[in-house]
Design brief:
single chain, mainly alpha, 44% helix, globular, disordered C terminus, binds alpha-D-glucopyranose, glycosidase
Length: 534
């Protein structure tokens, strides 16, 4: 691995940055999309036009006649807008008046705002996204403490609330960096989503001036300092506490969760394309290139699971010492759960939930796998395999409502131990095997990138049969996602925005460029996975 790392230089960095900074519409679609399936659907006709509902669509099948739900969704999304001194700066998590308990659903969550932001960008309304990016970078600058402990400077908030004082007629912001969150965990994903969104804004508008401001450059460097700092790590993956991302409760995702690793990878690559080539920027770019090499090798080798790999692990020897060990993390084959043998199709594969010493969490997590495709953390072959798996295991991973957050659910004794008896995360509910409509946009984006739009179409059809009628729930429960979630909010903004983004992506696939990165030759593994294990 050292050999790989030392091969990077600043001139490589320039090439890489140029590669990542290509204009939105042209190349990305050509290389990734199955043009045949798109032209059959009649949607390449408008690929060079700006996004938006005014865009004329020439489709023989009229498959993009605006669905009546689309207008309803836009109305609901606009109702969720949050203003600071008269300017829109985000969207509230849920606009659910029927719910007695507001908790923190009246706040703007950074991760929840991402699909809203993409919807606004795709609709040609970038200002709110710019306001949000600037507001959150200001909040990042605050000192943050949990009890007497001071958090790292770069930490981004999980959420913030605008407090309006009607007497003084002033607005102020109250942010939560984990100090109020249930479980007191700081969100590791917020900073990554922020960087990813800054790139989306830049790609979609062509306006590089925001990313170039000293505030944004500094904001990026602070986030990067936090996650690139050296410590006792022996792996390039990022060590996390349970509940530090979308799954923000104890769910056994501590360690090296796929969701964070995929977002980390995507944020590093996004930052590469936006950091200035000044002395400070170049120093970070060098560190990023090294980390990307090691991270992609590690993920593609050790997190990847397909039939062959499962069989290899099943036959592992244990207690191997030294560099020649095949079973590097000393995973005991008896720890492989029964379900995975039935679940794993001959065709297909995925990045498993977590890998650490003597521990492989074989659960499927949708967000991490979709982001891995979008960021090109997955090789083209792996991306295609993930889509194969989704097709082969449709009942389990999509069922009646897209998309299952993870599979399978944890039950009984394991649920007691792993979740700490969490009544909200009972089997097939919420984070424990629940179905989250917000994930529809990620699935759709991954489908488009891998040239499989028909899979997205099928998932969107399922959502359209119920989402509006059910009042845009936050999540669904049950093995196949048939029931509105036990404690699900209604009018959950990211369910609404996720649907809109999925629709717009399918209508105009050129939007994909703002949220997708092409494979970067420099992070290509030197050794292919199949050889690395033999
Ligand atoms: C829940 C979800 C979290 C989301 C928040 C606001 O806590 O687990 O991912 O950001 O609600 O919708």
């Amino acid at each position: 691995m050292e050999g790989v790392n030392s091969s990077s230089s600043i001139s490589d960095l320039d090439d890489l940055a140029r590669l990542l900074d290509r204009p939105r519409v042209n190349i990305e679609r050509k290389r990734s999309f199955d043009e045949r399936s798109f032209s059959e659907m009649g949607i390449f006709d408008n690929v060079n036009s700006p996004g938006g509902w005014e865009t004329p669509v020439s489709s023989a099948r009229n498959s993009f006649e605006p669905h009546p739900m689309v207008a309803e969704a836009w109305d609901a999304l606009r109702r969720s807008l949050v203003y600071f001194r008269g300017q829109p700066v985000g969207t509230i998590a849920a606009y659910d008046h029927a719910s007695e308990e507001v908790l923190n659903y009246d706040q703007v969550f950074v991760r929840d705002f991402v699909p809203s932001a993409l919807a606004f960008l795709m609709n040609g309304e970038p200002d709110i996204v710019k306001n949000f990016l600037l507001k959150t970078i200001q909040i990042q600058g605050r000192e943050k403490r949990i009890d007497r402990f001071k958090l790292g400077e770069g930490a981004m908030p999980a959420s913030f609330k605008v407090i309006h004082d009607p007497i003084k007629e002033t607005d102020s912001i109250n942010a939560d960096f984990g100090e109020s969150a249930i479980g007191r965990v700081a969100p590791v994903d917020s900073g990554f989503w922020w960087i990813i969104l800054l790139r989306a804004y830049t790609k979609s508008t062509g306006d590089t001036s925001l990313a170039e401001t000293s505030e944004c450059q500094k904001g990026m460097r602070l986030i990067l300092s936090l996650c690139l700092s050296e410590g006792f790590d022996t792996f390039p993956t990022l060590l996390c506490a349970d509940g530090c991302s979308m799954v923000d409760r104890r769910m056994g995702v501590y360690g090296y969760p796929i969701e964070i690793q995929a977002l980390f990878f995507m944020a590093l690559r996004s930052a590469m394309s936006m950091l200035k080539h000044d002395a400070e920027g170049k120093e970070f770019m060098e560190r990023i290139v090294k980390r990307l090499h090691a991270l992609s090798f590690h993920m593609r080798s050790y997190f990847w699971l397909d039939f062959q790999q499962l069989n290899d692990i099943y036959r592992y020897k244990t207690e191997e010492y030294s560099h020649t060990a095949v079973n590097k993390f000393n995973v005991i084959p008896d720890s492989i759960p029964e379900w995975v043998f039935d679940f794993m199709p001959l065709r297909g594969g995925y990045f498993i939930g977590n890998v650490s010493p003597a521990r492989m969490d074989f659960r499927w997590f949708a967000l991490g796998n979709c982001v891995a495709i979008l960021a090109s953390l997955a090789t083209p072959e792996q991306s295609a395999s993930i889509m194969d798996l989704i097709e082969e295991r449709w009942e389990e991973l999509v069922g009646e409502m897209p998309v299952k957050i993870c599979h399978p659910a944890i039950e009984s004794h394991e649920w007691r131990i792993v979740t700490g008896c969490d009544p909200k995360n009972t089997r097939w509910s919420y984070h424990n095997g629940g179905s989250w409509p917000v994930l529809l946009w990620l699935l759709t984006a991954a489908c488009i990138k891998t040239g499989r739009p028909q899979i997205a179409r099928r998932a969107i059809d399922l959502a359209e049969a119920r989402l509006l009628k059910d009042g845009w729930p936050e999540y669904y429960d049950g093995k196949s996602g048939r029931f509105i979630g036990k404690q699900a909010r209604k009018f959950q903004t990211w369910s609404i925005a996720g649907y809109l983004v999925a629709k717009m992506l399918l209508e105009d696939p050129s939007h994909l460029g703002m949220i997708s990165l092409e494979e970067d030759k420099q992070t290509k593994p030197v050794i292919k996975r199949s050889y690395s294990w033999t």
